[in-house]
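CORE FACILITY INTAKE
Project code: CF-77B
Contact: R.S. (postdoc)
Sample description: multi-component assembly, two entities in total
Requested service: structural model of the whole complex
Turnaround: standard
Below are the sequence entries exactly as provided by the requester. Do not edit them.
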Amino acid sequence: NAGVTQTPKFQVLKTGQSMTLQCAQDMNHEYMSWYRQDPGMGLRLIHYSVGAGITDQGEVPNGYNVSRSTTEDFPLRLLSAAPSQTSVYFCASSRNVDRFGEKLFFGSGTQLSVL
Amino acid sequence: GDSVTQMEGPVTLSEEAFLTINCTYTATGYPSLFWYVQYPGEGLQLLLKATKADDKGSNKGFEATYRKETTSFHLEKGSVQVSDSAVYFCALSPNTGFQKLVFGTGTRLLVSP
């Protein structure tokens, strides 16, 4: 059982380049999300989805796009990379959107550097 | 808004020492509280949780008690091991959906032999 799979693990971009971070889960989870992790700031929610075809913004959505065409996949797109987007990105999923005390399953992360 | 405050690290201990990592929160209502752990090079994993006041979450020798009167959820372990070296995140969920899940800044624990 693979869980939540993120690719790539590492990426270096130049300012202005675009790219897509991939996330896939094989647990048939309704909820999927993207977080970024920055030193001294914990994890901050970028975008999330409560099911195929449904997405919404989190705390820090600017500069990122998402789509959810299938239950399994939730890619994160950087349209024009900026140095401020240098961070570690985590995809997370959960079985049930609103269940009390439900836990998140995290991928192993993508370390992105924008030069 | 809701927030979580954790003690700054790193916390450096010798093997078999007692561990406490402080976590306090600010929230309206009755949130669920979590501790997640991140081992080097990996994503976060749920360590334990508590969903109502006075509940004690426990796992792998770690414990935390939901204290509403002090708005705290401190993580404790009686005897740490080198393999416990990781970053620990306290988090709260106001139970209105994951879009409101709030993480603390994380506390790095380093355990030496």
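Facility notes:
- The mean pLDDT of chain B is 92.
- Chain B has no helices and twelve strands.
Invoice: internal transfer
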